[in-house]
Amino acid sequence: MPRYADTLLADGEHVIVRTRQHWLATIVDGRLAWLLFIGSLLLLLLTTRLDQGPVRDAVGAAALLALLASVAWLAKLYWSWFSQDYLVTNRRVIKAEGILNKRSADSSLEKINDAVLEQDLFGRMFNYGDLDILTAADTALDHYRMLNAAPSFKREMLNQKHELEGEFSRPMPSPPLRAATVAAPPTDPAVAAAGAGPPTPARREISPDEVTRVLGSLADLRDRGAISADEYDAKKADLLARL
For residue 70, which of 43, 25, 32 has the smallest C-alpha distance? Predict the structure, then answer.
């Protein structure tokens, strides 16, 4: 079964990098849940040293409820962490999060101007960092906190941006030129004299842009009734033949 982020990909779009937050983020974000889990576990062990009585039963029940609550809390945190999908594709950067209710945000590569990466000592040791993606106006499009393998994520994002800009800057191929056909002169002088007549004016070749402009003007005249549809079609055929 494909992940949710894979269903957001367009035709011809493919994933270059896939990551999520570093696993240490689950400990940082879930520190209260971990404290509750450890505290309730110690309290539950402590009740085994108490004498039988209502106090032991009450403390034991409270410790057990706190332990179950902390386990459910931690399970939710880790499920949410596992559901994260941070992608770099050949067209954009996608950030998908959420367990049941999904949230996705994407940034087109051509709109990205730069990316600011911050890594502290532990970030360099464990290969994570905070990444801000900026537009041309130095406005943050998105913030990635404690991103796993953040330097590689940033590098591939900028590489794909450079590749995409290279595709846009490549010149479009020009239309093929038709080879001019030159008729061989007749060998028989009599035939040449008989076929001689008034010279036919050579038709000037025009560019595709000129054809498009003239056809637009002719279409406007046709729509206003200045010329007929047959006249428009005849002129269109003549113009296309002169390319």
Answer: 32
